[in-house]
Amino acid sequence: MPVPFEALIPLGLVTAMFGVTGSLLNLSRRYNNEGKPPRHSMDKWDKQMSERDKRLTGSSSHQSAEPVAPPGFNTSSIYYLTNKKL
């Protein structure tokens, strides 16, 4: 049973549109994560390390291998103290 050639044009269009939208979605996710694939299933440890990386390098997706932290790292804690009078 032959396939009518008229059905190949819509099939090609639908296939191309799925390919284009999938590629654009992948590019936008990588652009938002600075060229790295997105992280999935992050537990508490991964979130804490991501916050630490953000404080060390300024970006949550980059990591630092320097043995000494930058000068402002000791004051950039996620825990802030307040001077509230009771």
From TrEMBL:
It comes from the Eukaryota. GO terms for cellular component: mitochondrial inner membrane. It is found in: Mitochondrion inner membrane. Residues 31-56 have a biased composition (Basic and acidic residues). InterPro entries: NADH_Ub_cplx-1_asu_su-1 (IPR017384). The keyword Transmembrane applies. It is a single-pass membrane protein. Keywords: Electron transport, Membrane, Mitochondrion, Mitochondrion inner membrane, Respiratory chain, Transmembrane, Transmembrane helix, Transport. Pfam families: MWFE. The chain crosses the membrane at residues 7-27. The keyword Flavoprotein does not apply. Residues 29-76 are annotated as: Disordered. Belongs to the complex I NDUFA1 subunit family. Accessory subunit of the mitochondrial membrane respiratory chain NADH dehydrogenase (Complex I), that is believed not to be involved in catalysis. Complex I functions in the transfer of electrons from NADH to the respiratory chain. The immediate electron acceptor for the enzyme is believed to be ubiquinone. This is NADH dehydrogenase [ubiquinone] 1 alpha subcomplex subunit 1. It comes from Rhizophagus irregularis.
